[in-house]
Amino acid sequence: MPSRGRAWLRRAGCLIALLSLSGCAAFRSYNAELTGTLGEASSGNLEAAIKTLEANNKGPHKDLLYYLEMGELQRLQDKYEASQKSWRFAQTSVQAWEATAQTDPSKLARDAASYVINDKVRPYEGHDYEKVMLTTGMALNFLALGELDNARVAIKQTHELEAVIAELRSKETYEVEQEARKRGAVTSFKELNGYPVQSIDNPEVNALKNSYQSALSHYLAGFVYEALGEPSLAAAGYRQAIELQPNQPQLEQALAGLDQRVAAPDDGLTDTLFVIGSGTAPARESRQFPLPVPVNHTLVLIPVSFPVMQATSSGVLPGQLEVDSADRVPVTPVTNIDVMARRALKDEMPSIMLRGAIRSTAKAVTQYELQRQAQHQNNGLLGLAAIAVTIGSVVTESADERTWRSLPDRIGIARMRLAPGTHTVTLGTPEGPHMFQVTVSGRHAVVGLRLMRGQLFVQAPVPSATMRATNAARATPLPIPPPIPTEQ
Q1: Which tops the pLDDT comparison, 304 or 458?
Q2: pLDDT tens digits for 17-55?
Q3: Predicted TM-score of the model (pTM)
Q4: d(CA 412, CA 431)
Q5: Whole-angstrom distance, CA of residue 487 vs CA of residue 257
Q6: What is the C-alpha to C-alpha distance for residues 122 and 115, in angstroms, rounded to an integer?
Q7: What is the pLDDT of residues 403-426, one digit of tens each?
Q8: What 8-state DSSP symbol labels residue 212?
Q9: Which one-letter DSSP state was computed for residue 467?
Q10: From CA 92, how far away is CA 84, in angstroms rounded?
């Protein structure tokens, strides 16, 4: 065999070896795994959901996504300490990413365009909105544990993280554009034949300033700072929430009445904030698209996979809360994770497409040369190598489906002043009304609610003799009443 043929055979062998060395990660379907986990959770069986998650992550080294999902499931169980432990592991990964972004941002920007066999084998760093929702979730856990000062720390970390993300993404965009220009690669998903452009390029997605700032995080900041008696910081939080979610009277009222509330003497009532999550976050589904790659004036069709957003639930928020069959308060939508996730994918697509172009070019050149050499030399071994490369390219070509799926699809808030004691709250949903009891005391309380299909999970704050009075609250679900009969 001529030396050139042997060289291409060695190159094919290296490529096939890399395909095989990518291991289980390259073939793992995170979408399928989480469908089972969330199915158990939606049926009310959180223990089974956790066991399913653990069964799909048997290795000794868990990744960021495992801890994100585990912490959310534990929070739904009211196991706040366990949830915080899981989320601290996740936060360690995020903080390592943050440190690199601050000290060597060019490294992360270059990594965004790095060549890999499959995006699934890249270390999972989390999407930007997930990083911010992590610290927001930790703040809610601290509030449930009565640790108001720690909740303040988590809020501060959220603001710092947003600043780091903003600076890094601007640099990454420049690096990807430069690399794409150098390679002559197309990075616009609008030019990808068959891609559902409207799923990530529509007025609702484009209306977002970015993929990571949420009105929930900033409203919660305002509430925490207000509870701590820091009105100037509270006002900044409420203003940012209004900017992110304009034309919402409840958000505007929080800012307008701030000074009066802070200066008012204690009237014995509890300022109670309900945080309501509904549904589950959207999934990323891998789909293959044929990409023609020019090699020596010949077009070689290479299958390239890209992620496509898929809604996993309707995520309908209730219109209002009713307390003691008398007082009613509207539920204000403040954060739409579905739209944030779509905006995140839109922003990431130039990097994803650049990596796909690099991948497909390498495979196309190898495939073309092996076929040409096989025909020229009438060499069956080279022909088999070309077939192996072609098959390997198809089998391992899969988009990265990893994303924090147990997050709610939509989040709303409701706020009202309640007399200390136990109240019966009714939450109307498309599946019927849910009732639960909540006991509040002190000047401030936060109660978390989560709707998943027909299930209602109440994140009940932990009672403690040492708990600050501003954070005391408990909640106990009541049986769901039968639906009201319709007239015949």
Answers
A1: 458
A2: 444 444 455 556 788 888 899 999 999 999 999 999 999
A3: 0.85
A4: 18
A5: 44
A6: 10
A7: 999 999 999 999 999 998 889 999
A8: S
A9: S
A10: 12
Amino acid code (one letter) for 434: H
CB 68 within 8 A of CB 90: yes
Please report which confidence band the pLDDT of residue 172 belongs to, taking 50, 70 and 90 as the band edges. confident
Number of C-beta neighbours around residue 488 at 10 A: 3
Most confident of 6-15, 174-183, 279-288: 279-288
For residue 356 the two structure tokens come to 């796909």
* Averaged confidence pLDDT in the chain: 82
SS (H, E, C) 329-350: EECEEEEEHHHHHHHHHHHHHH
* Residue spans per domain, the chain: 3-267+337-407
- Distance CA(221)–CA(228), nearest Å, equals 11
Of the candidates 57, 148, 58, 77, the residue with the CA atom closest to the CA atom of residue 460: 77
Q: How far apart are CA 271 and CA 469, in angstroms?
A: 12
Q: What tokens does 391 get?
A: 């098959």
Helix (H) or strand (E) holding 125, with range, is: none
Longest dimension (CA), the chain: 93
pLDDT value of position 12: 45
CATH code matching the domain that covers 3-267+337-407, chosen among 3.90.1280.10, 1.25.40.10, 3.40.50.720, 3.40.50.2300: 1.25.40.10
- Say if CB 390 and CB 364 are below 8 A apart: no
Which segments of 122-214 does DSSP mark as H helices, in order? 128-144, 148-183, 203-206
Return the amino acid letter for 321: L
Cα–Cα distance measured from residue 47 to residue 36, given in angstroms and rounded to the nearest whole number: 13
How is residue 270 written in tokens?
Answer: 């509890």
The region that residue 396 occupies, defined by phi over 0 for left and psi between -120 and 50 for alpha, beta otherwise, is alpha
Angle at 402 between CA 401 and CA 406, to 5 degrees: 115
pLDDT at position 101? 79
| Alpha-carbon distances of 428 from 323, 356, 413, rounded to whole Å | 12, 46, 14
- CA–CA separation, 340 vs 315, rounded Å? 14
pLDDT at 425: 93
Angle in degrees, CA 401, 403, 404, rounded to 5? 150
Dihedral (Cα; 52, 59, 88, 170), 10-degree rounding: -100
